[in-house]
Design a protein that fits this description.
It is a multi-pass membrane protein. With 389 residues, the chain is an all-alpha fold. The chain has two domains: 1-191, Growth Hormone, Chain: A; 197-389, MFS general substrate transporter like domains (Growth Hormone, Chain: A, Up-down Bundle). Helices cover 84% and strands 0% of the residues. It is globular and about 55 Å long.
Length: 389
């Protein structure tokens, strides 16, 4: 059976995005307990290395547009696949914190390289009627990658944390090969993304940008320290892969974000996402020794995480419809910067407060930010009503 252009590109994109976002970006948090024990790293060093992962993502995000402008939109996706594979190989064999940092920077950059180019590839190589389906298939790659990452945690629990990264290396190579075979080469694309996004009206993107700062910071704290929190308790080793599987399964509700935003408004959906993630963090921080509470936290987080990510794309498209991609990327750059800072700050705080207290403090930031966003929406609605016809 011959696949349509939309299905071919969708499947290839799902594979690459699944490895880059669902696996390479978040594997460090999953393997953190093993990394700490094997390499004997301090909390501060662990936090700095985690930040390096997201610094790599930010670098890839900023450089992808330049590469596409010279060599076409498929080039950044190929580079992203190569970075994911090479970084994972380096982490697998790392015997020092510096080599570990180099590996996680390369692996973390993969998500940045592949984020925007697939949107350009789809709009240029797929018939208009097939584009929504292709983009939806690509988006689901993150959930599939998280599920596979949870599966890799099983053999890792029985052997070594390095098995997770070895599995990611193999998956990255396989995805890169699929991408080269199924995605057509395109001509040079115009320079865009972060640089174009910077010229968007500041007033239009101010609130989504603030949301991005909080959302990406609290999400990266959860992913970085969830496995470590479970490892410090009395739960069985199987709790970690179960947590990732629960996040993936409940994250599927993110497909309904568009319809939900139409009914409630994107701002309210974003606010609810922050409240939901905050509740998940609070549960994890207060009851990480309870299997029921941990699974409830994972389920709540999965819904808030995927919905919160999807609503940012919907929100920026509503506010800046003529340059939605540039507006979205501008908010991603802001969020990536927040992702870089959050783990480093956490690593400095944990020795004094403890991991549980850090998670509860992060939960409070997320909850209060969600409430503030709701109040802002209500105030804006009241202002519009008073000044309307």
């Amino acid at each position: 059976m011959t696949l349509s252009a939309g299905n071919r590109i969708g499947l290839a994109g799902a594979a690459v995005v699944g490895v880059a976002f669902g696996m390479a970006r978040y594997a460090y948090g999953l393997t953190l307990p093993g990394v700490r024990e094997d390499l004997e790293l301090s909390e501060l060093m662990l936090g700095l290395v985690s930040s390096a992962t997201f610094a790599g993502y930010l670098a890839g995000l900023l450089l992808a547009g330049r590469l596409a402008a010279r060599h076409g939109s498929r080039a950044p996706t190929t580079v992203g696949g190569a970075c994911g594979a090479a970084g994972a190989v380096i982490v697998t064999s790392a015997q020092s914190p510096w080599l570990l940092a180099v590996g996680v920077v390369l692996a973390g950059s993969a998500g940045g390289w592949v984020w925007a180019p697939y949107s350009d590839i789809v709009t240029r190589a797929v018939p208009a009627r097939q584009q929504p389906r292709a983009l939806a298939i690509i988006t689901t790659g993150t959930s599939g990658g998280l599920l596979l990452l949870g599966g890799l945690a099983v053999p890792a629990a029985l052997g070594s944390w390095r098995l997770v990264w070895a599995g990611i290396a193999l998956a990255a190579v396989a995805a890169a090969v699929v991408n080269l075979r199924l995605v057509p080469r395109t001509g040079p694309a115009p320079r865009s993304n972060a640089q174009s996004g910077a010229s968007e009206p500041a007033a239009a993107l101010r609130v989504p940008a603030v949301y991005s700062v909080v959302y990406f910071a609290v999400v990266v704290i959860y992913f970085t320290y969830a496995a470590d929190s479970l490892d410090r308790g009395t739960l069985p080793a199987a709790a970690v892969p179960a947590l990732y599987a629960a996040i993936d399964l409940t994250g599927m509700v993110g497909v309904a974000t568009g319809a939900l935003a139409q009914r409630m408004g994107s701002l309210r959906v974003a606010a609810l996402s922050l409240v939901t993630v905050g509740a998940a963090l609070a549960l994890l921080g207060l009851a990480s020794d309870s299997l029921a509470a941990t699974m409830a936290s994972a389920c709540i987080f999965g819904a808030g995480y995927m919905t919160g990510s999807a609503v940012l794309a919907v929100w920026t498209a509503e506010l800046v419809p003529d340059r939605a991609g540039a507006a979205f990327t501008a908010c991603l750059v802001v969020g990536a910067t927040s992702s870089v800072a959050a783990p480093a700050v956490a690593g400095a705080i944990i020795p004094g407060l403890g991991l549980g207290a850090l998670l509860v403090l992060t939960a409070a930031v997320s909850l209060l930010s969600g409430v503030a966003l709701m109040l802002h929406g209500a105030w804006r609605g009241a202002t519009t009503t008073r000044t309307g016809p």
